[in-house]
Design goal:
about 55% helix, 4-stranded antiparallel sheet, elongated, Gyrase A, domain 2, Multidrug efflux transporter AcrB transmembrane fold, alpha+beta
Length: about 450
């Protein structure tokens, strides 16, 4: 019996330590990560032009685009940005592909657009034979009829660096040296090997920078981007290319700015709703089940502390939908305790002693709790897998809460009740018999 009491004390001490961790780490690494709707920020929607991407390569291109933009915004120190892709309409190239970017804490829309828009789109295109003298139109724009796509784009880059001159001691103009990955090296080698003597146009964001003549077969996967660069301009281009050239062009479709004040209001409303809900549940459990109800409330409090600690450690980006999922999971945790208490009541009415009634009550309630929570976990997984970012935030917190609630209801509550209800003749045991379980 003393082992049970030691276990109960150990659980309480652990809960207190975890609670102290949650309370005293509200800044720095372990601070709560708030989503756009709670902290304020900017929501950007971009349309992705996948018309020139082969049907089978569109998903890979969109994944590469997402990775590039994530690297870009992370380089600016934006806390917990959310970057995701969505598709609407028909499948394949006819589908409407979009890039969704959420930047918490960035309320200046122009700044947010600059973070994304400054990432260049790099392309290499061969000049068609006979069009060498007409690569540009009268207004200076590239002549689209003068170029053939090669498939070589910035998505194959591994690095870019500022360099003065293209290898000749007599040339000191700033240029950018780019290196390709293994796939890009092979593609570049095939292009230069099969087209010696032809011009290769280098495009940045649709603008023709230069069209050097391919002098030799280049097999090492390196190329020189030349143009009328200043040293700072070439350095900036190299930096941006290292952060990632866009594999597909994007255009800004819509913007939305959420002020910090609105985010604070949503946060306070969510916290207030959680406190009111917790107090209401605690009062009901104590009034209806007395001592077992009080044990359930303590277990529920520990559950909340564990959840908040997990939010910090994982970390989970909390949104208004996520807070709703957390509050709902608290209700489910109470539901498990109610099932256990009712089963224990039945065992006591059958004349069993306190401790056997507690053990059998837990055992009989387990099947119903298990099946119910498995159904909730499946629902959470489906919502997370197929839902949008808003739904995913809810599903993640809800699913995590269901799993932790199993721990609090089956393990923590059981330990406390067994430690208190020693036997039917003890003072605590008699009180337990006369309390809510004996109604």
């Amino acid at each position: 019996m003393f082992a049970l009491r030691y276990s109960a004390v150990l659980v309480l001490v652990t809960a207190i330590l975890v609670g102290a961790f949650v309370y005293f780490t509200n800044h720095g690494r372990f601070a709560f990560k708030l989503g756009l709707d709670l902290s304020g920020g900017t929501h950007l929607v971009y349309d992705a032009d996948t018309a020139k991407v082969p049907v089978g390569q569109v998903p890979d291109a969109m994944n590469a685009l997402q990775a590039v933009i994530e690297r870009r915004v992370n380089a600016f120190g934006v806390g917990e940005p959310v970057v995701q892709t969505e598709q609407g309409g028909a499948l394949g190239n006819n589908g409407a592909y979009r890039l969704i970017v959420e930047l918490p804490g960035v309320t200046d829309v122009n700044q947010a657009v600059a973070m994304i828009g400054s990432t260049p789109t790099l392309e290499f295109k061969l000049v068609k034979q006979g069009f060498e003298a007409s690569t540009t139109l009268a207004n200076g724009d590239p002549n689209p009829a003068a170029f053939d796509d090669t498939g070589l784009t910035g998505k194959y880059l591994t690095s870019a660096a500022l360099q003065f001159g293209n290898g000749s001691a007599l040339q000191t103009n700033p240029v950018v040296l780019v290196n390709f990955n293994s796939e890009g090296t092979k593609l570049f080698s095939d292009i230069t090997g099969q087209n010696v003597g032809r011009e290769l146009g280098i495009f940045l964001d649709g603008k023709l920078l230069s069209a050097p003549v391919i002098q030799v077969h280049i097999e090492n996967g390196s190329a020189i981007i030349s143009g009328n660069f200043t040293a700072q301009g070439a350095k900036t281009l190299a930096t941006n290319l290292n952060l990632g050239a866009l594999p597909v062009p994007i255009t800004l479709a819509s913007t939305e700015s959420i002020g910090a004040t609105l985010g604070d209001q949503a946060t306070h409303a969510g916290v207030l709703a959680g406190l009111v809900g917790f107090i209401a549940l605690a009062l009901f459990m104590i009034f209806w089940y007395r001592l077992p109800g009080l044990v359930s409330v303590v277990s529920l409090f520990i559950y909340c502390v564990l959840m908040l600690a997990l939010f910090k450690l994982i970390p989970v980006v909390l949104t208004a939908a996520g807070l709703a999922g957390f509050i709902l999971s608290v209700g489910l945790a109470v539901d498990a305790n109610i099932l256990i208490a009712e089963r224990m009541k039945e065992e006591l009415h059958d004349g069993k002693a306190t401790q056997p009634a507690i053990r059998d009550g837990f055992n009989r309630a387990w099947n119903a709790i298990r099946d119910s929570n498995i159904a909730h976990i499946i629902a959470a997984v489906i919502l997370f897998w197929f839902g949008t970012s808003l739904i995913k935030g809810f599903a993640l917190v809800f699913g995590l809460g269901v799993i932790v609630s199993l721990l609090s209801a089956i393990t923590i509550s059981r330990t406390f009740l067994l430690a208190l209800g020693m036997d039917a003749t003890s003072g605590v045991g008699k009180f337990l018999m006369r309390s809510g379980l004996n109604k």
